[in-house]
Amino acid sequence: MRNELNPYRGRAVRATNRHGLSLTVIDLPSTATRQNVIVADEVWAEVDLGVIAVRDRHGLLNAHSLGARRGVLLCGPPGTGKSAVRAVVAREVVGEFTVIDVEAKAGAQLLTAVVEEAQRLGGPVLLVLEDVDLWCRDRASADAGLSELLRAMDIEPDARILTLACTNDAATLDKAAIRTGRFDSVIEVGYPGRTDAARILAALLRDLPGGRAVDAATVVAALPENTSGSDIREIVRRAVLSGDDGNVSTATLLAEVGNGRYRAQAPAGMYL
Hints:
9 helices, single chain, seven-stranded mixed sheet, globular, Rossmann fold, 272 residues, Helicase, Ruva Protein, domain 3
């Protein structure tokens, strides 16, 4: 429960580095849900284990020296739903949890201070680290972010803190950073298969004009390999913009798949 001593407890805040740690209350996106964010069931299962540990089983775990603190690292290529999963989880737990979204500079330089502040807030905390590969690489890179992450993740294993981190490239992270006890689960969020691609397309089309008449199987069959959920969303957006009065159809969707413009690519070479 929020009070004058803990004005941030139970709220969503962003941690930034403004000549020191600064917390600012933020609004969370409300449109993402487990129904429209299509990822493998194991992703939700691992996140739910973390929530249960710090919300429900912390007393039991800590009484037996097992530690309630949990870390989950989502890894995979861009556009596959990692950030969307993070948004869904944050929305689900805020109120019971304090949600702290840590921007990159604060993560690289002040993550220890963030964790210490999370402990002072009391109650369960969801600590969100986006794109950790941008500021925390292996020790060969002499990246200061690595030592900051290691220090922060080793503070108080009994703390009621669930860390949910995302990376596009887990291979760049030092093995010490992703061992059990720091990140207990490393889950790949990969490109959707045909079945999940069809579910993503159906969710996007459901309430659009003409959407229910689309032959989703034909559209999905035309998608090239390694098409992300973000790619499918852009295909649908372009079909809405190019269709008559915003109506989507199998033909407009296939045209957008075929022209490939849904994948923004910089031209090769230099302009002289």
